Amino acid sequence: MIRHRAFTLVELLVVLGIVVLLMGLILRSTRGDQREAAVRGAAMELAATMRRVHQRAIATHQTYGIAFNIQNEPGSSGAILNNRSGGHWYRIIGPAKRTKHGRIANSSLLHDFIPWAWAIAHEQQRVVGQFLDFVDDVELSWISDPIVLPPGKVRFLALGDTEEGSRWRAALPDPGWQGPYPPTYPRPWFGYFDPAARKLWAWGGYDPDIPCSGFYYQGLNADVPGYDTAAAAPPIVGCRNPTTRTIDQDWDPPRGGTWPSWDIADRDRNGDGDTADRYEQEVAVPLWKAGEPRPLVNAAWLDAVIIFMPNGSVRFGEWNRARRAYRPGMPDPATGPRGSDALMWGGIADRAKVGHGWSPPDPAPYRPMTTFDQWWGAYDMGEVGHFDTPTGAWRITLAPDVADDRSEFPDAAIALATMLPAWRIAINTYGFTTADRVAHRPGYLASLPAGDAVWPSAPTDWQDMDRINQSCRMGYWHEPASGYYDAPLVPKGHPITTVIDPAMLTRRVWWKTLP
Predict the structure, then answer these.
(1) Beta bridge partners of 491
(2) How far out from the chain centre does Cα 90 lie?
(3) Three-state DSSP class for residue 77
């Protein structure tokens, strides 16, 4: 007689445990594949868009741009970038529709064919140089709808190689006027992990205790009517505007009129019987309203824009140019500035950098990181560092979106896991575009040959201004004797651009030097 042996309870539990484990592994693998597919797809779409716009600029003999927007989910802290509400997108902008730029005399100003801050021109005897004129010009010049990264799935991790934070320098290169970086800056595209505090400081992350952090420009001279006050702006809570801001924008010179008989009242320019259009309004024009979402990087102001020129060349425009180019407030017409100086009034008070120490700060000393690396440019650094000088390319980093704003982690490896898989899209000065998956290599720094030293050798080196000024200005390692008296900085090594090691987060290392 054949007897059939039944499974014991223990055996059943073991089998069930194995099944659950296998299902968990399969589910985890599926989720990982989905994350990979989403980020890779978004990276390929951005790269394809860059190639398409580059070809269009060449074919039409006109200048185009791709502007980027980062808006964290309203209600979130802003400490970590997130795209949960679909605020991460980019959009194609074409030649300016309203401004007529007659001052373009050489190729270095070709980018002015797209709407560009601080453009001085005239249209029908009306000055087109005020901030809201620029904003309207941008709005009229879009040639595509926003291309939104998949909400809740993909986000911008960084729009450059480093974030410089609120480091500032007075116009004169006197070392005694130079302060050190704030403790958490500079922040690489992958962020900085403080092992003592077990906290991740993300590229673009906002901290209310650090003035001017995260491009929100919260601090002295922000969100106030003019630079002549030392009042600090209210903290930004929930990625929303803490205050309502209005500005007086235009002075309309009557035909044949002279200063100071310019019109400061609202005026019906288009003849429709009202002044409802913003470009017809002169006084108390809303710039933003309290409680509204506050973009971290504002495409409507062309905070970050890649410019494609008719000759096939590409450049990354100066960061936040509009925020610096326009002075805040409107002076008394009887005593205010005359001529071109008057055009710069009626702007915004927000700035990425703390002022030079006089009122109002002059935007002229600030230079675009991508085109200016002489001795004074090394001090008045832009908000974002690009390694285009040593590598020839600008990079945009995409990563999986995050479900919460957690910035504290047990270690750097776990913090890094929230950013992977990551892809970096690179475009060089000739328009050649690539999309590369970031290679995750724990132990990479320790495995480098002895001849491949890294910068910095210790995290505290970022607080040593003498070392930075001698060997690591403009965000990259260079020959100590270079960069003075109009001489460009000469790179001494290579940045680590598509490899990530958890140790790079804790040491803020992204540069290999050469013997």
Answers:
(1) 478
(2) 12
(3) coil
Separation between Cα atoms, residue 221 and residue 99, nearest integer Å:
29
Residue that is written with structure tokens 């054949």 in the block: 2
Integer Cα distance of 449 and 143 in angstroms? 50
| Burial of 212 from C-beta contacts in 10 A (0-12 / 13-18 / 19+) | buried
CB atoms within 10 A of CB 435: 19
Rounded (10°) CA dihedral 489, 372, 469, 499: -70
Q: Which helix (H) or strand (E) holds 315?
A: strand 314-316
Structural contact between residues 385 and 164, judged by C-beta atoms closer than 8 angstroms: yes
Distance CA 151, CA 96 (A): 30
> Is-above-0.85 flag for pTM?
no
- The pLDDT-based confidence of 31 (bands split at 50, 70, 90) is low
- For residue 431, give the nearest of 112, 56, 113 by alpha carbon: 56
From the list 239, 200, 203, 207, the residue with the least C-alpha distance to 84 is 239
CA nearest 499: which of 447, 429, 431, 430? 447
The two structure tokens encoding residue 401? 């979106």
| Residue-wise DSSP of 334-364 | TTS--THHHHT-SB----SS---SSSSPPST
Question: What's the angle, vertex CA 343, arms to CA 337 and CA 345, rounded to 5?
Answer: 75
| Pairing assessment for the beta strands 314-316 and 126-127 based on DSSP bridges | unpaired
Secondary structure element (H or E) that encloses residue 201, with its range? strand 199-201
- Asked whether 129 and 118 are in contact (CB, 8 A), the reply is yes
pLDDT by residue (tens digit) across 240-270?
988 777 776 655 554 444 444 455 567 776 7
